[in-house]
UniProtKB/TrEMBL annotation:
Protein name from the UniProt record: MBL fold metallo-hydrolase
Organism, scientific name: Svornostia abyssi
InterPro entries: LACTB2_WH, Metallo-B-lactamas, RibonucZ/Hydroxyglut_hydro, Sec-metab_biosynth-thioest, WH-like_DNA-bd_sf
Domain Metallo-beta-lactamase positions: 25-174
Entries under Gene3D superfamilies matching the protein: Ribonuclease Z/Hydroxyacylglutathione hydrolase-like, Winged helix-like DNA-binding domain superfamily/Winged helix DNA-binding domain
Pfam families reported for this sequence: Lactamase_B (PF00753), WHD_BLACT (PF17778)
Source organism superkingdom: Bacteria
Length: 255
C-alpha cells in the first residue's frame, strides 16, 4: 500500500474509531501539494484532526476539504479542521458547505461523481485514475444502503459508472486500498444481484416477515449486524416494489 500511496502522492491519516461498521477506522485522504486537498475529515477526534492538519502543513497548506457524505464518521470533524486550516472552502452535496457539489463538478483537482445509495448525498471524488469512494465502496466487505427512494437502483447505476471509468486504485472510506477496482466493482454488482435472487426466491417460497427475509437472503450476516442488514433489505424491497415484483403482504422495514 505504501508504494501505491507514494506513486500517487497520497497520504492516509486513519482515525482511531474502529468498529464493525468503520472497520479499522475512518480513512482521511490528503492529496497533492502547494496546496493539498483533504477528502473526508472523519470524526471530531482532536488527535486525528491535528494529524490531518499537520500533514496538510507538510504539503504546503490546504486548498480545500471535500466530503463524500454527511455521516458523522466522515464529516463530524469538518468544521474543526476547517478552522485549524484557516477557513478553507468545504465542498459537499448536503453538508453545510460553502461549495455545493453535484455530479461532474470540479473541486480543486478533484472531479465529483454522484454515487447515491449508502446515503442520498454520497459523492465519489476522482483524481486522475484514483477514486476516493467514501462508503460507496469500502476496502473490506460491502456497503450498507440507506432506504431513500430509488436508492438501490441509483446505487447500481453508480457502480456501473465507476466501473466504466477504468480506475487503477480505489481509496475507500474504510479499510485497505483496492488495487483492482474493476474486480471489486464486479464483485459489488454480483453481490447485489445475488442478494436480490435469494430475496426473490424467499418471497416465492412464501417468506413474508422481515426475519424470514433476512434468513433467506442475509443468512451469512452475524446476529449483531442483522439490524444493519434490515436497512439494506428495505432498499431491495423498495426496488422490487418499484418494479411491480413485490407482493402486497410482505413486511417491510420502516425507517
Amino acid at each position: 500500500m505504501a508504494d501505491v500511496l507514494a506513486a500517487y502522492d497520497i497520504a492516509l491519516v486513519r482515525a482511531d474509531n474502529p468498529s464493525p461498521l468503520t472497520l479499522t477506522g475512518t480513512n482521511t485522504w490528503v492529496v497533492g501539494r502547494d496546496p493539498c486537498w483533504i477528502i473526508d475529515p472523519g470524526p471530531a477526534l482532536e488527535a486525528h484532526l491535528h494529524a490531518v492538519a499537520a500533514e496538510a502543513e507538510r504539503r504546503g497548506g490546504a486548498g480545500g476539504i471535500a466530503v463524500t457524505h454527511d455521516h458523522f464518521d466522515h464529516a463530524e470533524g469538518t468544521e474543526g479542521l476547517r478552522v485549524m486550516l484557516g477557513g478553507v472552502p468545504v465542498g459537499a452535496a448536503r453538508l453545510a458547505a460553502n461549495v455545493k457539489l453535484a455530479d461532474g463538478d470540479p473541486f480543486g483537482p478533484l472531479r465529483t461523481i454522484a454515487t447515491p445509495g449508502h446515503a442520498p448525498d454520497h459523492l465519489t471524488f476522482a483524481l486522475g485514475d484514483a477514486l476516493f469512494t467514501g462508503d460507496a465502496v469500502v476496502g473490506t466487505g460491502t456497503a450498507f444502503l440507506f432506504p431513500d427512494p430509488g436508492a438501490l437502483r441509483d446505487y447500481l447505476q453508480a457502480l456501473e459508472h465507476l466501473r466504466a471509468l477504468d480506475a487503477q486504485v480505489i481509496c475507500p472510506g474504510h479499510g485497505p486500498l483496492v488495487s483492482d477496482p474493476r474486480a471489486k466493482l464486479d464483485e459489488y454488482l454480483a453481490h447485489r444481484r445475488d442478494r436480490e435472487a435469494k430475496l426473490v426466491a424467499g418471497i416465492e417460497a412464501g417468506r413474508r416477515s422481515i426475519d424470514e427475509l433476512l434468513d433467506a437472503a442475509w443468512d451469512d450476516v452475524p446476529d449483531a449486524m442483522r439490524p444493519v442488514a434490515a436497512v439494506t433489505l428495505a432498499t431491495h424491497l423498495d426496488k422490487l416494489a418499484d418494479e411491480g415484483r413485490l407482493p402486497g403482504d410482505v413486511e417491510r422495514p420502516r425507517f
